[in-house]
Amino acid sequence: MTDATIAAVHDREAAAASRRHFVSRTVIYALLTIFAVIYLAPLLILVFNSFREQPEIAQNGLIAFPRSFQLKAWAEAWSTYCIGGTCEGMRRNFLNSLWMAVPATILSTLLGAMNGYVLSKWRFKGSEVLFTLMLLGVFMPGQIALMPWAFLLGKVGLTNSTYGLILIHVVQGISFTTLFCRNYYVSIPDDLIKAARIDGAGFWRIFRKIILPLSPPILIVTVIWQFTGIWNEYLFGVVFTSGREQPITAALVALTASGTNVRAYDVMSAAVLIGALPPLLVYFLGGKYFVRGLTQGAIK
Amino acid sequence: MSTVPMDAGRNSASAAPGPTWRERITRISPILILAPSLAASFVYIFVFTIWTLYISLSNSSLLPSYGFVGLDNYVSLWSNRRWNIAYSNLFFFSAFYIVGAMGIGLLLAILIDQRVRGEAIWRTIFLYPLAVSFIVTGTVWSWLYNPTDGIQMLVRSLGWTDFNFALASDRSTAIYAIIITGIWQSSGFAMALFLAGLRSVDQDLIKAAQIDGASTFRTYRRVILPIISPIFLAVAVVQIQFAIKTFDLVAALTRGGPGISTTFPAIYVYDLMFQRGQIGEGAAAAMMMLAALAVVLVPYALFVVWRHRRESRP
């Protein structure tokens, strides 16, 4: 009898606990789903509209389930759409951004890796101070550097050219890449370096044989950070280049601001996606490392 | 944090007649490697800043010139109504944007921290906006705010025919459009940092709290969140930096309008320097942006140094 009552109480408590558990799980997943919808909606709307036909968009609005399908908008956005007088689509600006972001990313990452190596494993008197001063570059607002860059680019003949933007991004990137790599290399044991030096390895040999093989995690983070940052940059692109020389971000603003009466949302959606695709691709491919590195680098 | 001294190789060198080529290269390589970056950073950080500071004190208009006029540009800047709007917009935007992004970021981090299935997928969804440029984000959201094609049209077509949602095209509400979009873009970033913080909390402490019978809510409030409080500050500082530098988002979303209602300091600098040919006053505005950053970053840097010292004290 008593056993039965205890068991009954237990059952009731267990049932209540499992009901509470079920409710809280449901609330958690419901909230996550609501936020996921809000986060994904703009991307989905872009994708849908790039394939919908313009009359259908005009009739049903931007936010609607697709009822038509076309690929024309992508082709038009890529190669024939007119922006400010020239009708070459986004292709040229896309390539400008590519020829800007790839070399600038590689150069600034290489510099960062070597600087980080020196500042963590070959410290000398005052190197900590120099590191701190280089860090200031992380905080510089681009607006401070606008006039000086304009003057400098004019002097060296790189106004309105992708090379000028590469120069800017490499110089600006040094602070970030050095910070990332230095903080990562500090965690490589100094004893490893000492042992290598006793074995007669020099500066470069240690870099090649010890540091580089340990580097992929931080190099991936640095490359993702630099590439997305440079690809997405707008201020320098719009100030120092014009027309056909502009990177894709500046061209996108020119395109979406162009005041035609009927807004070609299908073509503009495709164009915006073309502009967003490379960093998204890089992010989805290396996202795991991106999250890890972001959190490591930012909390340190 | 021990250092490898530069002259660690000297013992072997003293036995030989003189340093060999390899030893010499080893000795000067670090300096040679660092020199170009140091020079470039020095020019970029110090020469550029001093240059802009000087221009802000000069009578430059369409082209830089070097006639010294003292603080005239600053006086004229601060007596400009548009600059005052820009500056108060920055404060207003920063406050809501930071609180909003941190609040939603923390909520998402805590939700994901409840051992949910498919954690990587949720994280990826919430963080992907960070990989997309403000230009893309601003453009898409400007369409959604557009009353004839966006959210207003959707809701009206669902039956609420008198539904009004035209945030971005109304002078008094356009700044909320920027705040919402900014939060959408960067709350995932806050989430990533908070999540990393939550994961770094000692599991034994959490278990101890749960054995004492504390609810999940209470455990977070009393145990976990106080431990990760330094992260709140770090996230806030990063977000303030974003806020002060905000240019692309506004450029793509409202272009400073309607009228001048969403002018920001970053927009103002660009406009003055390259649209109106008032370089001197533009430089003064840029210096004010740097000052705003310094007001936030210098105390934070000092605080971080102080905390490090205190923690490393035996």
TrEMBL record, chain A:
Q: What's the main place this protein lives? A: membrane
List where the protein spans the membrane. 27-48, 98-118, 130-151, 163-185, 206-227, 267-286
Q: In what residue span(s) does the ABC transmembrane type-1 domain sit?
A: 94-286
Signal sequence region = none
Q: Does the keyword S-adenosyl-L-methionine apply?
A: no
* Key words of the record: Membrane, Transmembrane, Transmembrane helix, Transport
Pfam families cross-referenced by the UniProt entry: BPD_transp_1
- Membrane topology, record value: Multi-pass membrane protein
Per UniProt, subcellular location reads as: Cell membrane
List the PANTHER family hit by this protein, alphabetically.
ABC TRANSPORTER PERMEASE PROTEIN, GLUCOSE IMPORT SYSTEM PERMEASE PROTEIN GLCU
The UniProt similarity line reads: Belongs to the binding-protein-dependent transport system permease family.
- Per its record, how is this protein called by name? Glucose/mannose transport system permease protein
**Species of the source:** Kaistia defluvii
What taxonomic classification does the UniProt entry list for its organism? Answer: Bacteria, Pseudomonadati, Pseudomonadota, Alphaproteobacteria, Hyphomicrobiales
TrEMBL record, chain B:
Matching InterPro entries, A to Z? Answer: ABC_transporter_permease, MetI-like, MetI-like_sf
Task: Provide this UniProt record's keywords sorted from A to Z.
Answer: Cell membrane, Membrane, Transmembrane, Transmembrane helix, Transport
Indicate the family of this protein.
Belongs to the binding-protein-dependent transport system permease family.
SUPFAM superfamilies, A to Z:
MetI-like
Matching Gene3D superfamilies? MetI-like (1.10.3720.10)
Q: What membrane topology term does the record carry?
A: Multi-pass membrane protein
Keyword flag Phosphoprotein: no
Record localization: Cell membrane
Q: Which domain of life is it from?
A: Bacteria
The organism encoding this protein is Kaistia defluvii
Protein name listed in UniProt = Glucose/mannose transport system permease protein
- Taxonomic lineage: Bacteria, Pseudomonadati, Pseudomonadota, Alphaproteobacteria, Hyphomicrobiales
Q: Where in this chain does the record put each ABC transmembrane type-1 domain? A: 87-302
Transmembrane ranges?
A: 31-54, 90-112, 124-144, 174-198, 223-244, 283-306
